[in-house]
Specification:
- This protein is mostly helical and 141 residues long.
- It has one domain.
- Helix content is 78%, strand content 0%.
- The protein has four helices and no strands.
- It is elongated.
- The termini are close together.
Amino acid sequence: MKYNSYQYSSRVWLTSVIVAPAFFNIIQYGTQSEYIHNWTITSILSMYSVWVLLEFIFSSVIWLIFWGIIALIAWYFEDKTGTIMWLVFVAGMLLAIAPFALFCFLSDGGGDYNDPFFPEIAISNCACIAWGIWFYELRPK
């Protein structure tokens, strides 16, 4: 049975590209209180635009992998919708966190990487992808 894997994965991915930077900015606004007085609408919007562009560029390869995994899972488990959704959820979370974990590991030579920037953007991405996986419908064509 064929599923709408392309549409589904595109919706989940584009949601994360658009919404994760907004979540990240909100987290930054809450955690960087000493810099709030320097923030203007223009600076917030310009940083949001930069983050959306970076999200789009760096996550496009991950989206292609995600699309392929969804298609394989849907093909293999055909009529088991519950199983498909949970496997897609696990795959989505692993694909969302893997680039951040790999970057943190490689940038510090495998040591202890303590920059709060990456966990915040990783959490933003994971939240958006998790929401998108359960919100959008993966259905048979």
